[in-house]
Write a structure and sequence with these properties.
The chain is mainly alpha-helical. It contains three helices and no strands. The longest helix has 14 residues. The radius of gyration is 13 Å and the shape is globular. The N and C termini lie far apart (about 25 Å). The mean pLDDT is about 90.
C-alpha cells in the first residue's frame, strides 16, 4: 500500500522562534529538543547556522491551519 507523502512544514504548535526545528523534528520523527540542540551547537562551532535557519524559515511553508 502507498503511504501518504510526507511534507515538510514549519510547526505552528511546537515553535520557539519560527517553527523550523519543530517542523524538521516532526518530518524526521525525532525529538524537537535534539534538533534545537544541533542548531545551537552548529551556531557555536560551525557558524552559518543562523543564516541557514533564516533561509529555512523563509523557504519552508507554515503548517496549514485548521
Amino acid at each position: 500500500m502507498d503511504e501518504p507523502m510526507k511534507k515538510l512544514y514549519r510547526s505552528r504548535s511546537d515553535r520557539r522562534i519560527g517553527g523550523v526545528c519543530g517542523g524538521l523534528a516532526a518530518y524526521f520523527s525525532i525529538d524537537p529538543t535534539l534538533v534545537r540542540l544541533l542548531f545551537i551547537l552548529g551556531l557555536i562551532f560551525v557558524g552559518g547556522t543562523l543564516l541557514a535557519y533564516i533561509i529555512l524559515m523563509i523557504v519552508i511553508p507554515e503548517e496549514p491551519g485548521e
